[in-house]
Specification:
globular
């Protein structure tokens, strides 16, 4: 089952790359922005609950999809790019085993505990 989930996340990451390729940006934009959602980890300086809320907000695929759709309908490539980056980053994170965070601490996710046990 774990490999099936990783395959699904890989497909979603590939979708993000495909959608990005439809925009009028050079590839270095994707590479430069793909890790930007991880800045949301700064929320952990205010405690695990605030950190989890902020991290989960910027790592929820639905937010990326909603932002992309808004950008599509208002014909704004920068807004579409924002949605694609949020979506693709979240898929990439899940592919590597980083899930949405629980309030108990950064290493506790909906996919299990991150790191050595």
């Amino acid at each position: 089952m774990k490999n099936l989930i990783k395959l699904e996340e890989l497909a979603q990451f590939a979708l993000g790359i495909f959608l990005f390729s439809q925009l009028d940006y050079t590839w270095w934009w994707f590479l430069a922005l793909i890790l930007l959602p991880d800045l949301s980890m700064i929320g952990y300086t205010m405690g695990p609950k605030v950190g989890a809320i902020l991290y989960n907000l910027f790592h929820h695929k639905a937010l990326g999809i909603i932002i992309f759709i808004i950008g599509y309908f208002v014909l704004s490539q920068p807004i579409q790019l924002t949605g694609i980056i949020l979506f693709a980053h979240s898929a990439m994170d899940r592919l590597f085993g980083y899930g949405l965070k629980l309030n108990t601490g950064f290493k506790y996710t909906h996919l299990g505990i991150i790191g050595k046990q």
